[in-house]
Amino acid sequence: MKLKNDLLLRAARGEKVERTPVWMMRQAGRILAEYRAVREKAGSFIKLATTPEMAAEVTLQPVDLLGVDAAIIFSDILVIPEAMGLPYEMIEQRGPFFPSTVHTVDDLQKLHIAEPETDLKYVLDAIKLTKQGLENRIPLIGFAGAPFTIFCYMTEGKGSKTFSVAKKHLYADPEFSHLLLQKITDSTIAYLKAQIAAGADLVQVFDSWAGILSPEQYRAFSLPYIKQICDAITEVPVTVFAKGAFFARKEISLLNCSVVGLDWNMDIAESRELIPNKTLQGNLDPCVLYSSFDQIRSEVKKMLDQFGTQRYIANLGHGVYPDTNPDKVRCFIESVKEFSTGY
Predict the structure, then answer these.
(1) What is the spatial order of strands in the sheet that 140-145 belongs to?
(2) Whole-model pTM?
(3) Residue 26 a catalytic site member
């Protein structure tokens, strides 16, 4: 069935669009009172993410309430380690926590390649329900964490500013590191292909902790595994978003992906030069949305002037922060639509 609004997919494929498509990372979340009501009913984040009806409901909320040009399935990047046999908890005010972590080749033997149709059926069911609720209005984005980012949590066991435990493995035991990264990669490819089969129109790979690596380490322990994913996903456009990896933009431009996401530290003109043949996505600082409505409009206009309106998907440079005023979010979205129409 043809989508009523396929701006995002056309922009991702490099086709001409009549205006710039816009969506936001973490758009289904705490900025919306409607989300908080469903979250309270669920009782926990994990219960919400693993209940298809609730996950579909909060995925659809920003479509109806904010007017974005794409939905992104409500889930978590850490469902992959859990599906591989490493469960996690989500602790209020602290974030994810893994009671067990992986440090040796023996630990690896206890893990398995995820089987999405069984281990992650709840995500696939949520995608199917969301597609029904969308009624072909706009595309649905699926996603997964990049292998190195997942590696960080599986070895560190929690969030960290440095991920020194994870990085220690890269130096002290590269053989173990590559074995675990490959297992994560195989699971991720199967998972993304299952999301696409369930109805995802585009998929995004989030390398949230790319910026903690040196360029040399990124080339050794992240890029080859993202390349495997990009080469394997041929059914729909793929977006690669490597936060903090400004040093790897040229190499990312060589990946078999359609879209490259930029954070707000990545210069737009320089990025166009380094990534000339792909669609770019980003990259407004989420903190801009704390400013006045006039300043938000001014910053959006400046961003559009720099990116241009073709081969571009408007977004923030990272996820929207949970204490952001929804009216400021609407101002961002409406400004993109207003300033990019008729260019």
Answers:
(1) 71-72, 140-145, 202-207, 238-242, 259-261, 279-284, 312-316
(2) 0.97
(3) yes
Residue 239 in contact with residue 281, Cβ under 8 Å? yes
Tell me, yes or no, if 10 is annotated catalytic: no
Model confidence pLDDT, tens digit, residues 68-125: 999 999 999 999 999 999 999 998 778 899 999 999 999 999 999 999 999 999 999 9
Q: Which residue has the tokens 């206009």?
A: 301
Task: Please confirm, yes or no, whether 88 is among the known catalytic residues.
Answer: no
Contact 19, 341 (CB under 8 A): yes
Beta-bridged to residue 312, according to DSSP, are 280
Sequence letter at residue 296: I
Please write the tens of the pLDDT for every residue from 166-212.
999 999 999 999 999 999 999 999 999 999 999 999 999 999 999 99
Integer-rounded Cα Rg, in Å, for the chain is 19
Q: Is position 311 annotated as part of the catalytic site?
A: no
Q: Is 153 a catalytic residue?
A: yes
* Nearest to 288, CA basis, from 263, 260, 324: 324
Q: Convert the pLDDT of each residue in 303-343 to its tens digit.
A: 999 999 999 999 999 999 999 999 999 999 999 999 998 65
Q: Which amino acid is at 326?
A: P
CA distance 240 to 249: 11
Q: Which of 6, 19, 69, 76 is catalytic?
A: 76
Q: Which of 19, 26, 297, 311 is catalytic?
A: 26
User: Can you tell me the distance from the alpha carbon of 77 to that of 145, in angstroms, rounded to the nearest whole number?
Assistant: 5
Q: Are 143 and 207 in contact (CB under 8 A)?
A: no
| Catalytic-role residue among 10, 19, 69, 153 | 153
What is the rounded distance in angstroms from the CA atom of residue 255 to the CA atom of residue 310?
A: 20
